[in-house]
Structures are given as structure tokens and as C-alpha cells.
Design a protein that fits this description.
CATH class of one domain: Alpha Beta
Largest sheet: 8 strands, mixed
CATH topology of one domain: Rossmann fold
Helix content: 25-40%
Number of strands: 24
Distance between the termini: 29 Å
Structural class: alpha/beta
Number of helices: 23
CATH superfamily of one domain: P-loop containing nucleotide triphosphate hydrolases
Radius of gyration: 26 Å
Strand order of the largest sheet: 6-7-8-3-9-10-12-11
CATH architecture of one domain: 3-Layer(aba) Sandwich
Oligomer: single chain
Length: about 675
């Protein structure tokens, strides 16, 4: 169906011509799925857009060919391109809110796709739209069609975008990081949906991702891309089982191994940064970051993509492949176990946070009998010095609301929050003492939304130093800023740069440095790595771990990535619908007995290691129940009757391990572990 031969894509800029994609070869057959993996900036999205000749006014295919059904798309006129785009080849973008028009209801946006490609009646259009919504398993289609994009959940938005792509009945579906911002359970549902659609329509897929676990589940073959070129290609199982290129091995070393702790297998970030397209080094593009590179060889000769002698379907671009050897890289040396947690300094007891229901005009409903929204409903746990407590759950489970209550951004509606023995739960941040504000800090998910784009990095860290610490005087503040930058492993000259001049990983490090300005006793990290490449993610996680080891800082780590939580956390709190479903020491939460919700989260993990089993069936998407019985009852595969829906479940204890469930612990222990080794 698709044949890409020696493709190069260039962009003309004021500084000159920049090659973003170089010498790429790719074939894709009917019904086949191929994964494209690499760090940000390696050319994955540029390659995808080139399939549609959609690289913008400055971009152009400078060499090679893209043949679709045997025809070179370079010869397509505007009308044939219009029919190709969204018709024969459709694309699903990373961020659904960027692909959906916020001012139009979904009905108008979906109908527009059919009208653009076919001349059919309104009745036929509506029938096609309803069929597409059914294919992506969107329930209550009438509500979806009359909704604006912001009125849908993230999973519903992404399914609507996939339905929009399917309306043109494409033969090839290009997916550019389609699940990056989604919960693991929603991600599992989307991946299952893609597999179902592929089997039903024999549709080919080009799946772009930096998540090797997802690629393992979706794709037949995988291409590893670096600095605009392919450095390794082969079957998905072959590449993930026996990676040959040092870059592929580096990516796999950045991913937490299932079941591994930080003291057993520390994450190893790839050192350095990828070269920019306009400043490609001579020789191998990866040489500056490669532990196997030889001066005088790798920095002078550019390697070719060469098939392995015993596996011609597996090709590698490396000059020293024979010397490096085959098979997975050896694991890094284990770190010493962290020191046991110290004294208790944060205690939450039956904390509740509710909101009155808002009207469409932004006011508050005051109808008699109207129930408030219980965002957090009776949460209790303790954080000790040097301890990492993870808050786990899907979006809307109350994790971030609870974090805001701890920090004083919100106040508790009921219950108690004690910090160093002092009640602060009803004390807003403006009323807290400076030392209390400095001792409790947060690192947000997206540094772009928390750093002022018009102020230098140094200015923003210095402001935090003056606000949160006792350091005074320009010289002392400057020394403290330099020390904080060094603490997060950034050079001091970055203080003079604006946030836009830094990479995503560097901006997140700046956010961490700013949070450390007042020597906090506790840092709340709210999804700090979910939007980052695996190599940057590994570096940030290693940084948080190192800071905690050296300063005995407490850490509340909010995440939906259970593999990362298993790696980092000492204690895990699993939340759903504002309540705690399960909590306890990490070792106990990750082994049976599991709460059915915890089991579902673990089963949704995408695992890159083929030695571990495939995921189970994904959860269906239902609203949380916030009154009466168990909030998870409507989605639970193990519910045991009416009392699950009407009676609040008891908290059952097995030592420090607690599970809120009507199912007896003895029965929960009978279920097999959600994560185990074995055939997929």
C-alpha cells in the first residue's frame, strides 16, 4: 500500500536549509501496523505529515519518493490531495483538543468530514456518523453529538477524533502519539479499539509513539528513529527482545522494568541531547551520546542501515555492531536501599473536599436537596521524612484536589491536615506562615503553564528564593540560584535564558529547582513526567530520587503510571471517585490481594518487555458513583450484588495493607497477580 524510498524532508528557514528527515525507507502493507519510536525532535511527526504533503509552506520533500498504491504523491494535484487527506489516508493527532473546533458541536464537525468527501443526503450523513460513533464504542451518541469538545472527557474526545478519521473510510490510519495524555485505562481501551478496527477493516496503521509498551501491543514491526533517520528496524518482538543499536538499548533502559524497585534496577537516562536538525555532527548522529563510540571512527563515518546476517528482517545502523554484541544491555548496578523513613510530618485524617454544583452561567445552584460534588471523600494517610507516597488513579479521582488541599491552594471541607503537628487543613496558603509555605511545594505536570515566558529562568528562581527562604542580598540570592541549578544538574549560564530557549526536560528541571528554593520538607509532584520522552522521564525521576536521598525530602508523587509508581514509591494510595480504594506499602499493593480497581489499573499497563504477559480486557468508560455504595461498583467485574451499589464497603486490613471492598480478603487472595511473567 505504501512505499517510502530514500525520503528526505527539508525546511527553508532564514538561517538556511534544515534537513528534518533523511534517508528513510519504509513499506506498509494492507492491514499491517508499523510503529515509529524516538525522542521528541527526531522527525517522527515530520515523516507522518510528509505522507500527506502537509509539511507547511517552508517544508518540502527534497529527495526520495512516497508511493501510495504505486503512485508517487509528488505528482498529485490539489484535488487528488484533498481526496487523499482524510479519505484514503487519515491522521489522528496527539492532542484531540487541537484537532476539534471548540466553537462547533460534535455533530457539525463529524458531518463535515462526510460532506467533504462524498455527495450524500443528510440522512445518510447522520447514519454514517452514528455508525462511526458506535464503532469507537461511544455510548449515548445523542449526548455526544450535541456536545462541544470541552464537555467531553479526554477519552471521549480521543474516540471522537478517531471516529472523525474513520468517516472517510481510510485505508491507512496515521496515529501521532494518540494516547500520551490519557489515563492507563482509557489508553488500554483506545489500543483495544485500534486493534479491533484494524482487524475489521484490514486497515494499515502507522503508530507514532515514544511508549515502547504500546508499540509492542499495537505493531507488527517497529522503526527506531533518531536525528531524522532510522537507526534500527525489525519485528516488534525481535527489536524489543534483542535490541542491537545503543540508542534502542538506551530507550529500554529508561523504562522501569515491571516489578523492579529503584534500589534493584535504577533507571539510566541517555546522557546528552539529540542534535538539532540544523547542526548535525559528522559521522554517526548518536556518537556523542553513545558509550561505545570510538573517536576517529564513529565521529567520521556515517553508518548505513545494514541487515543482520542471521536475521535479514532486522536492520541496524551502527559501525561497531559486531564488537558491541547482541542481546539486551546489561542492567545497571543496583543502588543502595534508601534509608528508612524518618519522623512523621504530614498526616491526613478523613479529609473531605466538596464543591457546590455550578450553573452554566458560573453561579451556584441552591436548589433544595441539591448534593454537593464530593471531590475528596474521607482520605487518610501519613507521609514521613524521606518517604515517597504515591497517589494513583484515573483523572477525576481526586488526586490533584487532595494535593491542593495539602498545599493550601484549597481548604478542606472536613477532616484534618496536620503538618508537623499543626492543623493547616482549613488554613489557605495566604494565611500560612512563610516557613510553612516554603516547606510545602509543588511541581506541576506542564512547566510551560507555570513558567513566565517573558522572564528569565534565573529571575523566576530568584523570586522563589526571596519569597520562600531567608536568603537576602543580590549576591547571596545569585549564589543560591546557581546552587539550585547545579542541584538539578543544569549549567549556571541557563539562568540568563528564557523558558522557550530550553528543552522540555530542562524546563521541568527549572520547575523542580524553583520548588526547592525554600528547602521544602515535602514536595508534591503532580504528574511531573507524563508528557516527557522516556529518556527525559528517566532523568527527572533519577533527579527526584537523588534529591530525596541527599535531603530526606518527603515526596507525594501523583501518577497514573503504575510501573513508575512501583519503581519509586514506598507507600501507595489508590483513589477512585474521591475515595481510597486501597493503600499500603508498595510491595503489598502490587501483590495479591488487590482491590478490583487496582487490579484493573495494573492490567492496563503497557509492558515493553515481551517476557511479561499481555494486558487484560480494558475497563469500559462509566461515570463515577459518588453516593451510596462503592464508587467503582458500576465498572467492577467482580461485584457481588446489590450491596456493592448501595452500601459503603468496609475497610479490610492485612497488617498495613488496607482494601475498601465487600469481597472478603480470602477471596481476593485467590486471584492471580495482575502482573506476572509468562507467555503473552
Amino acid at each position: 500500500m505504501l512505499d517510502i524510498e530514500n525520503l528526505a524532508v527539508e525546511y527553508r528557514q532564514r538561517s538556511g536549509v534544515v534537513t528534518a528527515v533523511r534517508d528513510v525507507n519504509l513499506t506498509l502493507g494492507t492491514g499491517e501496523a508499523v510503529g515509529l519510536v524516538g525522542e521528541s525532535g527526531c522527525g517522527k511527526s515530520t515523516l507522518a505529515l510528509a505522507l500527506l504533503r502537509h509539511n507547511g509552506p517552508g517544508g518540502a520533500i527534497s529527495a526520495g519518493r512516497i508511493r501510495y498504491r504505486g503512485e508517487d504523491i509528488a505528482g498529485f494535484g490539489s484535488e487528488r490531495l484533498r481526496r487523499l487527506r482524510g479519505g484514503k489516508i487519515a491522521m489522528v493527532y496527539q492532542e484531540p483538543t487541537a484537532a476539534l473546533n471548540p466553537s462547533l458541536r460534535l455533530a457539525a464537525q463529524l458531518a463535515e468530514v462526510v460532506a467533504a468527501h462524498e455527495d450524500v443526503s443528510q440522512a445518510a450523513v447522520r447514519e454514517r456518523v452514528l455508525t462511526a460513533l458506535g464503532e469507537v464504542h461511544l455510548p449515548d451518541s445523542s449526548r455526544i453529538l450535541r456536545s462541544y469538545p470541552h464537555q467531553l472527557s479526554g477519552g471521549e474526545q480521543q474516540r471522537a477524533v478517531i471516529a472523525m478519521a474513520l468517516l472517510g473510510r481510510p485505508e491507512l490510519l496515521v496515529l501521532d502519539e494518540p494516547t500520551t495524555a490519557l489515563d492507563a485505562t482509557v489508553e488500554a481501551a483506545i489500543v483495544g479499539l485500534l486493534g479491533e478496527l484494524r482487524r475489521r477493516y484490514r486497515m494499515a496503521m502507522l503508530f507514532i509513539s515514544h511508549n515502547l509498551g504500546l508499540v509492542r501491543e499495537v505493531c507488527d514491526r517497529v522503526l527506531i528513529m533518531y536525528a531524522g533517520g532510522i537507526v534500527e528496524a525489525g519485528t516488534t518482538t525481535g527489536v524489543l527482545t534483542a535490541p542491537q543499536h545503543p540508542y534502542t538499548r538506551g530507550l529500554l533502559a529508561c523504562v522501569p522494568a515491571p516489578g523492579a524497585r529503584r534500589s534493584e534496577r535504577p533507571l539510566m537516562a541517555i546522557r546528552g541531547q539529540p542534535p538539532t536538525p540544523g547542526a548535525m555532527p559528522p559521522g554517526c548522529a548518536f556518537a556523542a551520546r553513545c558509550d561505545h563510540a570510538l573517536i576517529g571512527l564513529c565521529d567520521r563515518r556515517e553508518p548505513a542501515l545494514t541487515p543482520l546476517p542471521d536475521r535479514p528482517e532486522h536492520a541496524v545502523r551502527c559501525l561497531r555492531l559486531a564488537e558491541i554484541g547482541s542481546g539486551p544491555a546489561s542492567p545497571p548496578a543496583a543502588h543502595p536501599s534508601p534509608a528508612p523513613p524518618g519522623e512523621e510530618f504530614l498526616r491526613l485524617t478523613d479529609v473531605r473536599k466538596h464543591y457546590r454544583a455550578a450553573t452554566a452561567l458560573g453561579g451556584w445552584r441552591r436548589e433544595r436537596g441539591a448534593r454537593p460534588l464530593q471531590a475528596v471523600d474521607g482520605v487518610s494517610f501519613v507521609v514521613r521524612r524521606g518517604e515517597t507516597v504515591a497517589l494513583v488513579g484515573e483523572s477525576g479521582s481526586g488526586k490533584s484536589t487532595l494535593a491542593r488541599v495539602i498545599l493550601g491552594i484549597e481548604t478542606a471541607s472536613a477532616g484534618e491536615v496536620h503538618f508537623r503537628g499543626e492543623a493547616v487543613g482549613t488554613m489557605p496558603v495566604g494565611r500560612r506562615r512563610p516557613e510553612q509555605r516554603g516547606a510545602l511545594q509543588i511541581v506541576f505536570q506542564n512547566p510551560d503553564q507555570t513558567l513566565n515566558p517573558s522572564l528569565t529562568v534565573g529571575h523566576q528562581i530568584a523570586r522563589a528564593v526571596r519569597k520562600l527562604s531567608t536568603v537576602r542580598g543580590a549576591a547571596e540570592v545569585a549564589r543560591r540560584v546557581a546552587a539550585l541549578l547545579a542541584m538539578v544538574r543544569l549549567p549556571p549560564d541557563l539562568a540568563d535564558r528564557l523558558p522557550a530557549q530550553l528543552s522540555g526536560g530542562q524546563r521541568q528541571r527549572v520547575s523542580i529547582a524553583r520548588a526547592l528554593a525554600g528547602d521544602p520538607a515535602l514536595v508534591v509532584a503532580d504528574e511531573p513526567v507524563s508528557a516527557l520522552d522516556v529518556s527525559v522521564q528517566a532523568a527527572i525521576v533519577a533527579l527526584l530520587d537523588d534529591i530525596q536521598r541527599r535531603h530526606a525530602t518527603g515526596l507525594v508523587f501523583i501518577s497514573h503510571d503504575l510501573a513508575l509508581v512501583r519503581y519509586l514509591a514506598d507507600h501507595v494510595v489508590v483513589m477512585y471517585g474521591g475515595r481510597v480504594m486501597e493503600q499500603g506499602p508498595s510491595e503489598q499493593v502490587f501483590t495479591p490481594p488487590h482491590h478490583p480497581y487496582t487490579e484493573a489499573l495494573l492490567a492496563a499497563l503497557p509492558l515493553a518487555d515481551p517476557a511479561w504477559r499481555e494486558r487484560r480486557a480494558a475497563l469500559h468508560d462509566d461515570a463515577h458513583r459518588r453516593d451510596g455504595g462503592c464508587p467503582f461498583a458500576a465498572r467492577c467485574r467482580r461485584q457481588i450484588g446489590e450491596k456493592c451499589r448501595t452500601e459503603r464497603p468496609p475497610v479490610q486490613r492485612a497488617g498495613a495493607h488496607r482494601i475498601a471492598c465487600h469481597i472478603p480478603l480470602a477471596e481476593l487472595r485467590l486471584h492471580a497477580p495482575a502482573l506476572d511473567r509468562g507467555p503473552g
